[in-house]
Amino acid sequence: MNPRLKAIAAGQGGVVSRAQARYAGYTREQIARRLTDGRWERVRYGQYAERSDLSDVPAWERHVLHHRRLVHAAMNSMRPGSAVVSHHSALVMHGVPVWKVDLSEVQLTRTSGGRSGPKTGVRHHRSRLAAVDVTNVAGLPVTALTRAVVEVAATCTFEAAVVSADAAFRRPEVSEDDLRRLREVTHNWPGGPTIRAVLDFTDSLAESVGESRLRVLIHNEGLPKPVLQAEFVDADGFVGRVDLYFPEYNTVVEFDGLVKYGEATREALIGEKLREDRLRALGLEVVRLTWADLDHPARTALRIRQAFARARRTPLAG
Questions:
Q1: How many CA atoms lie within 13 A of 173 on its CB side?
Q2: Confidence of residue 60 (pLDDT cuts 50, 70, 90)
Q3: pLDDT tens profile 61-91
Q4: Is 53 a domain residue?
Q5: What tens digit of pLDDT does each residue of 220-276 get?
Q6: Residue 20 sits in which domain range?
């Protein structure tokens, strides 16, 4: 892109419209040539971006980056002031993880006219937004973080909503006052009961998508509520902080998210083994779970219950 178009793209997440490219001096033929030879790519009809090499980026992150471009492209196609980025698209713009949502579809809330429903890769919602419910992210009007959480809770699965809410509620911009206000505002929404269930269940101590999903699995399978991020010490000092701890059953459950990506180094694995040995020396049962275990809830719950049974036969050290 020439300097004029680069300046425009920089303020729009790297996305420019056909009209903006023409304004910056490109002819129809030049635009078509760049799309054909791969220098540019079509984000959506009439919206383009320079092609980026994302081959070294993990697949999920590529999907998120592409969704951000789709958001900018969709908003670039709208009349200014007519829509706000909302729902899971707002969460993506806020940098909050999302789970099991359709990242090929942009979510917008119309603020003036227009029908609700899906249209060319965009799902339009109709809702009244208070000034406090809208903020600015990357130059776009976006529903505020807490508002986006309840929007997702009203339209997605309980698990998907908890994944995002756990992460969002670690952020300083989420306030108790805001949560109380939105709980009242959404009381009569179609998804109101799910919103309240998510808000009651959310725990900002869950530190990853995997831990949040594991919490939901434990809840769904009727296991007792664990303590998150419990710390242990032995005669040699601090042993570590564990993901989930069931004090009445002397059992620790750890979620190993690195296994999925092959990121665990040999040194890290040795360190984890020594840490587990020290936990077991305290009389604790240790259950280590991975991403694959989350796809088998009943089997995973049985492993935890079996650990409970073993721990009952072993007195806690100290």
A1: 16
A2: confident
A3: 999 999 999 999 999 999 988 999 999 999 9
A4: no
A5: 999 999 999 999 999 999 999 999 999 999 999 999 865 433 455 566 666 778 889
A6: 3-42
Query: Counting Cβ atoms within 10 Å, is residue 31 exposed (0-12), middle (13-18) or buried (19+)?
Result: middle
Cα gap 102→191, rounded to integer Å:
19
Side chain identity at residue 133, one-letter code = D
What pTM does this model have?
0.88
Domain boundary among 177, 202, 227: 202
Average pLDDT, the chain: 91
Of 150, 255, 151, the C-alpha closest to 200 is 150
Q: Which of 202, 225, 243 is the last residue of a domain?
A: 202
43 has pLDDT over 60: yes
- In this structure, is the dihedral angle defined by the CA atoms of residues 259, 262, 268 and 271, taken in order, positive or negative? positive
